[in-house]
Prior knowledge:
By secondary structure, this protein is α+β, with helices and mostly antiparallel strands. Helices cover 28% and strands 34% of the residues.
Amino acid sequence: MMLDGTLPVTLQYQLRSKLLENMANKIWAPGSQIPSERELCDEYGVSRMTVREVLKDLVQEGYLVRKQGKGTFVAIPKFEHEFTSTYSLSQVIEKVGLQSYFKVLSFKLEKASGHLQQALGLSAEENVYELIRLRYVNEELFECERAYVPASLMEGVTEEQLDRDGLYPTIFNLSGLMADEAEVEAQAINCPADVAKWLQLKKNAAVMHLTRITTAHNRRIAYCEIYIRSETYKYRYKQTLRKKGVYEEPQP
């Protein structure tokens, strides 16, 4: 659709509006590659300079992402985490129409460290399964997760089973315990070197670090450490400022 140079608004403004409309209407889906500069010039009847200026602005504003040697892509939206008992990142991803999957990097049986004994309520003699996996969203690296599960809850488990069914369904299938509560803590940290390599980040890049202890029927069934690429994630919480008619000073 050619733009109209006789309108009282600039061609640059018209082109920006058209490109944003394509993204809003999912003509260009999150994570998808947009047409080249030349193709946009031909489609909208504008100069290469106009196209470049508009794309530059949209990249700076976070609507688009440039990938060296590949082209320009629609940015995957930043997922918002609200700390509630019903929060599920997988549900948030599905709600915005994106696809996600896990890739298992490592799966092994090991002795529970002192930290894991405390986190999972285990004795010094007990073992845990360690599962390290990456989550992709629309084929883009999103997070790295280290999960630890008491070995007694997943006797006879295989890596193929975990890869096919997922962590918590596998725990349920083998032990009958269904996750019903999770305690989550979050903080921004510099990414550990091994995780940065897996997430294809620079050394000491900022990531969101979540620790999650999951329980079922008051029994701790999993301890997870999750590292999320910071450009894809933010969190918020709701704070009550009045309680029983008394104003309370907001806490940081």
